[in-house]
Amino acid sequence: MKHSITAVAMFSLVLLFSGCQTANVRDNTGDLGVQTGESPADIYVQLGLAYMQEGRYDVALRKLKHGIELDPNHAQAHNVLGVLYERLGETEEAETHYRKALRLAPKDPYIRNAWGSFLCKQGKYREADEQFDLALKNPLYETPWVALTNAGICARQIPDTKKAETYFRKALTLNKTFASALYQMARISLEKGNALTARGYLERYLSVAKHTPASLLLGVRIEHALGNEDTEASYRLLLQRKYPDAPEVQQLDEIPQS
Q1: 3-state SS assignment for residue 217
Q2: Rounded to an integer, what distance in angstroms lies between the CA atom of residue 86 and that of residue 109?
């Protein structure tokens, strides 16, 4: 009799949880929590991304357009096309594809993040922050530190340094080696007068990423603040030799040599 009661209780518990899950179909997971079939457009989205990483935007555009021809309702194809058109400076086309992607997959965190970044670049900071927040609400979002870092970068443009720092710290709590957040924390630390802390963040950045003109210029500023003439000179020389045409080279004139 005891075993019978236990079995009934367990069965009731299963029904309870099943009922809750069925009733709560409007959760935050979206399509990430649903088994979906393959689309003929999938391969073209991957090809488009690969060509974009190589800087071959013309080929990427052709691949992505072909993918949408095969599957007009492929949300990620529209999302990636939005990113590509944004890079090409085609703002209206980018917005059209972002909005299409959102209509097709309104709870996709990757789409929300991309749309938020786009809105931030248009100066729509509040709307952008809302999009990052929506992305972060999806419990299946595998890279929330990306949206947090983008939200921080956007907050800096307001400017709201305190809010930005909060976002960057949250991002690094989730992924302590995320290069973009490390670089941003190095910048903020230097701006707050903590040059030694800034150097620490920059060193962590360089352990996971390669130098860029921006990171080299930041290195010059940090070492100048610390009074380390030799390292400052090394950063200057590397920036001038490796990226002679970068705008950051012209900004060196703003930093008096020690």
Answers
A1: helix
A2: 19
CATH number of 40-105: 1.25.40.10
| pLDDT exceeds cutoff 80 at 166 | yes
For domain 107-175, say whether CATH 1.10.8.80 is its number: no
Question: Which residue matches tokens 């999302």?
Answer: 79
How far apart CA 61 and CA 78 sit, in angstroms, is: 11
HSE-up of residue 16 (Cα within 13 Å, Cβ side) = 6
Q: What is the pLDDT of residues 193-203, one digit of tens each?
A: 999 999 999 99
> What is the number of other CB atoms lying within 10 angstroms of the CB of residue 218?
23
In the chain, ranges of CATH 1.25.40.10 domains: 40-105, 107-175, 179-258
- Single out the residue of 167, 168, 238, 236 nearest to residue 198, CA to CA: 168
For residue range 217-226, what is the model confidence (pLDDT) as tens digits? 999 999 999 9
Contact, 187 vs 179, CB < 8 A?
Answer: no
Look up residue 41 and give its DSSP letter: T
Mean pLDDT of the chain: 90
DSSP for residue 34: S
Residue 125 vs residues 13, 21, 193, 252: alpha-carbon distances, Å: 46, 35, 27, 30
Distance CA 32, CA 40 (A): 19
CB neighbours of residue 245 within 10 Å: 7
Quick one: which of 230, 231, 165 has its CA closest to 201?
A: 165
pTM for the whole structure? 0.86
Q: Under a CB-based contact definition with an 8 Å cutoff, are residues 63 and 47 in contact? A: yes
